[in-house]
Amino acid sequence: DVIQLGRLQFQKINSPYDFPGLGIQEGEMLMNIHIPALGPLDIDACRESLRRAEELFVPMFGEFKAFFCHSWLLNPVYRRYLPPTSNIIRFQNLGTVIPFHNSLDRDALYRAFLNYHEDPFTSKPRSAMQRAVQQMILRGESLSAACMLIMR
User: Fold this and answer.
1) Nearest in space to 31 (alpha carbons), one of 5, 117, 132
2) pTM to 2 decimal places
3) Beta strands 29-34 and 66-71: pairing type?
4) Mean pLDDT of residues grouped by 10 in the chain (152 residues)?
5) 92: three-class secondary structure by DSSP
6) Residues 150 and 66 sit within 8 Å (Cβ to Cβ)
């Protein structure tokens, strides 16, 4: 039930929350975006995946208002640490990011450091993302995930 279209994966879901400012009600059909760990988050490849998803899913499932994504990559705090040219920031700019506190702090640590068996407190960062995550944990900032809606 997960379909890979280029850089991103998609799945039909019901909205887990109300987003009144965006006109979306809990339970309404959305297309969930999963960002597989396949390397750089190339923004042009992401846009092409979204285009292909609309082309495929509207005839398949009917109209839907938005794409939904929930990920550690969407934490808006990264904007303070990553340049505007970062693919992560450019991905966030595709939609409306909605921050919320949750228990996915470990996901950011795992993806940025522990997956590579590195100590996030003492390792020398090898990327802008590692540098951002390390600075955030050293400053006591939340690594919580956020969600994003990309309206059609």
Assistant:
1) 5
2) 0.88
3) parallel
4) 96 95 96 93 97 96 96 92 96 94 69 75 88 91 90 94
5) helix
6) yes
